[in-house]
Amino acid sequence: MELVLAADPMCSWCYGFGKQMGLLLERRPDLSLKIILGGLRAGATDVLDDAGKQFRLHHWGKVEEASGVPFNREGLLARRGFVYDTEPVCRAVVTARVLRSEADLLGVFRAFQHAFYVDALDTTDGAVLAETGSRALAELGHPVSSEEFLAEWNKRSTIEEAATDFATVRAMGVSSFPTLFLNKGGTLSKVGAGYAHVDELEKHLAAMAA
């Protein structure tokens, strides 16, 4: 059995859910995790204006209240000309998966979240993503140079693999992120959609096993 998480690093509720997901894996070491990238705003071209910033700050407040994760609000407000395209960072997670399939992908995923939400880095920039990704992999014991990371990130095959993830998520009927499934013998069953506490997730898994 494995858990399947449909998520996007630049989805604030996915960011809030990261700690609970990590705790669940600690409690259930018998379950592996597969992450499928959602492409929440993949290919977006509109510049984040003041209304868009305020919309996100409103949601960030709700996520912070529910989960306790920190947000760099000043970093968001200071952005100028920022296009909220989530394809590049989703592709960066795919890049880590391609380069170091044995690494803890959730750890890499959360490193990109921290880069965006706390460090206020531009997670649409390839060089920033390569530096963040290579550092995360090194900290997880699977070193790769930022140059190698960036080269893989730029490959057509990696772009296509990210697009395949987006299509897979749509085919799974996912309408919001994060959504967590249990894959049992090739059959996917939904464990939960949206933010949920680890205790709640454990109860759902126990009921599904029964």
UniProtKB/TrEMBL annotation:
CDD domains the UniProt entry points to: DsbA_FrnE_like
Entries under InterPro entries matching the protein: Thioredoxin-like_sf
Domain of life: Bacteria
Residue runs in coiled coils: none
PANTHER family, A to Z: DSBA FAMILY PROTEIN (PTHR13887:SF54), GLUTATHIONE S-TRANSFERASE KAPPA (PTHR13887)
Name under which the protein is recorded: DsbA family protein
Organism: Phyllobacterium pellucidum
